[in-house]
Amino acid sequence: AQAAALDRDCMTLSRHVLQQLQSFGPEAQDLSALMNRIALAGKLIARRLTHAGLMEDALGFTGRTNVQGEDVKRMDVFANDVFISVFKQSGLVCRLASEEMEKPYYIPENCPVGRYTLLYDPIDGSSNVDINLNVGSIFAIRQQTGDDVDQSAADLLQDGHEQIAAGYILYGPSTVLVYSMGYGVHAFTLDPSLGEFILSSENIRIPEHGPTYSVNEGNFWQWEDSIRDFIRYVHRHDGYSARYSGALVGDFHRILMQGGVFLYPGTVKKPEGKLRLLYETAPLAYLAEQAGGRASTGTQPILQVVPDKLHARTPLVIGSSDDVALVESFISERQREA
Ligand code: P6P
Question: What is the value of pTM for the model shown?
Fold first, then answer.
């Protein structure tokens, strides 16, 4: 048993990535190093979050608004800067595209053979930071196509099948890193005493159905009728319970591990919804499909959506295949009546 425990403690993130990419050849080294840098970013952010309440300028707002028109919190800026610092000298990526930056950050002198771009939401759910509830970082890795001399990053405006890896870091009671490179979904728990992310769940599968529906019912009267039809259905039927934390990563992680469905629908005023495609809904959709679940806008798979701009938004219905299909059935029913 001791030997088994030691073996488990030795299954670190970088070893797991190399195992997954055995057939990839030299690219495997780059991707393993890249994932290791993401893990370093996660550790730096987790460390700051743990001490934020004890530091002068870690919590609260900066007074600025970001490209999304949202108030920027000090932790948003810190986490964004962490990813840039971690990758600046790494020689692993050419560009970083973030929710917190209007344009991507270019690192041309370090543009490697793989020509990777890191897309990320450095702190998702930052409204939870000041009340010590879970927040997360979401990331996706794509390969640059073309040389983007005008730095328009137009090659990023492609569908989610262009992602070669995706994942998130959940800063909760423990810090958990979840990723997939197309060979299943795997979770690692940070062992602070080792400073290593150790494999804790391998080949995670989303159950076909789950008891949770996760949505902000405060928007009930802003939605299309079809979403209200779905909510009325779950209210009337046993076996469903509502869970909503206001932070996407934690709400999705519950669905990934236990099944159910998370929704952030569009509203009549904002049919495209609130969540951003390239660094929120597409990475999570990649994971959901890798884990045997589904992710749709309500009418088409998220991974088929081609963004018209870097910060494009999509509605999101994600989780157990049966539960996503149930939501879609209410949407198609209303479309038939229209
Ligand atoms: P609402 C956080 O701001 C976020 O981007 C996601 O993490 C979360 O799921 C959603 O917005 C919460 O939005 O409108 O329910 O407060």
Answer: 0.96
